[in-house]
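The data layer described in this paper is built around a simple, fixed record for each protein. We quote a single record here, exactly as it is kept in our systems:
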Amino acid sequence: YIYRRVVAFSCVGKWARNATRILLFALLASVPTIIGLQRAGYENIWTDLSAWTIYLALGFLSMLLMLIVIIDIFKFTWWGARKFTDAVPDDSLDEDFNPGRRVFIGTSFSSALVMASAGLTAAGTYQAVIVPGVKTVSVPAGRIPEQLTRLKIVQISDIHAGPTLKRSWIEGLV
């Protein structure tokens, strides 16, 4: 779906379209491979770099898919509103119709979606790797034993440890 909406009908040549197909297939095939390698204990700099590359690419493609679906829903709604409300009469054909202009607008729009997806992926990655802030909250506890009055409780939430954020990073938070 992403390929058909972004690459297939753009101005890129046949070589670029084929390279994109191969890249997408390789990405999808590499996900279970890298997960299997890491679960089997093969962890080194290459599996770590591969994991980051693969998961960033998947994040990018997820953002791109989300944006494409949102735009397609909007376009379908716009088309339906125009078609069924007679907003554009059938006899008003544009005499200056230029198919090259349509291709240019489509390619430009696809490029904008790709750039927006890249920006959202970068922002999400930044949010994932920064050290979270510490928020101190005093909670009145009523009657507690004297030896527990200086007790500090730490709650760490929404931290996703896995193939990219390792145990050492999590231990650094604590």
Notes: The mean pLDDT is 81. The CA atoms of residues 160 and 166 lie 9 Å apart.
